[in-house]
């Protein structure tokens, strides 16, 4: 038993030293002014992202580290848009004649990690298709940002940036007057 303690301790320390490869996404709900919109709509979403990771960290030596989401970002996007539309007064009903489809096309952060600094670029793209009695509106929403800093970016900074951009995307969709005009 005594001979196992140092081995167990070394294994625990090695586990603590490794960086996590999963991002925790928890975007804030879109900020909306409670409204008196009338009507119901069916809401669906799909994930059409070419890459299933969220963050790609490229190092000077060419090695890449990929970080994946703990839960599907498509579900988070749909839930945020659903909550925002509900606050605006819409009723979400799968049997509604007005349909709204969300397509998550891109959600990725690319980080170039140098020896003494890093540069990061975040890119989100979603397409919304609304069909209201045969009239169709297709609109693309884009959110892009970048940041840089010394050494390696902290996981908390990466998560905060991804959550902020995802919240921004949801707000852009929910607060779009052209979208509301087409829904009514």
Which percent band covers the strand fraction? 35-45%
Q: Topology as H/E string?
A: HEEEEHEEEEHH
Please state the average pLDDT score.
87
Q: Helix tally? A: 4
Largest sheet descriptor: 8 strands, mixed
Low-confidence segments, given as residue ranges, are 7-18
Rg measurement, Å: 21 Å
Q: What class do helices, strands and sheet pairing give?
A: alpha/beta
Fraction of residues in helix: 25-40%
Which geometry do the CA atoms define?
elongated
Distance between the termini: 72 Å
Short summary of the structure?
The chain is of the alpha/beta class. The protein is built from four helices and eight strands, in the order αββββαββββαα.
List the topology elements.
Layout (H helix, E strand, L loop, with lengths): L3 H14 L4 E2 L16 E8 L7 E5 L4 E6 L3 H15 L3 E2 L6 E15 L3 E16 L2 E16 L4 H20 L2 H7 L1
Parallel strand pairs: 1-4, 2-5, 2-6, 3-6
Antiparallel strand pairs: 3-4, 6-7, 7-8
Structure description:
The chain has 184 residues and is of the alpha/beta class. It is 30% helix and 38% strand. It is built from four helices and eight strands, in the order αββββαββββαα. The protein has helices at residues 4-17, 73-87, 155-174, 177-183; strands at residues 22-23, 40-47, 55-59, 64-69, 91-92, 99-113, 117-132, 135-150. Strands 1, 2, 3, 4, 5, 6, 7 and 8 form an eight-stranded mixed sheet that branches. α2 (73-87) crosses α3. The longest helix has 20 residues, at 155-174. The N and C termini lie far apart (72 Å). Mean pLDDT is 87; it is low at 7-18.
């Amino acid at each position: 038993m005594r001979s196992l303690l140092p081995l167990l301790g070394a294994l625990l320390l090695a586990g603590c030293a490794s960086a996590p490869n999963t991002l925790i996404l928890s975007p804030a709900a879109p900020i909306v002014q409670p409204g008196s919109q009338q009507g119901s709509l069916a809401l669906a979403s799909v994930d059409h992202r070419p890459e299933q990771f969220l963050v790609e960290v490229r190092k000077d030596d060419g090695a890449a580290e990929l970080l994946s989401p703990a839960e599907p970002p498509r579900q988070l996007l749909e839930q945020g848009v659903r909550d925002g539309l509900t606050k605006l007064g819409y009723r979400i009903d799968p049997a509604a004649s007005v349909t709204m489809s969300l397509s998550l096309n891109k959600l990725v952060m690319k980080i170039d990690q140098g020896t003494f600094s890093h540069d990061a670029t975040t890119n989100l793209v979603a397409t919304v298709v609304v069909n209201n009695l045969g009239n169709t509106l297709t609109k693309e929403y884009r959110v892009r940002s970048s940041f840089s800093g010394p050494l390696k970016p902290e996981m908390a900074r990466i998560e905060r940036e991804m959550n902020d951009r995802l919240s921004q995307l949801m707000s852009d969709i929910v607060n779009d007057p052209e979208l509301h005009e087409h829904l009514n």
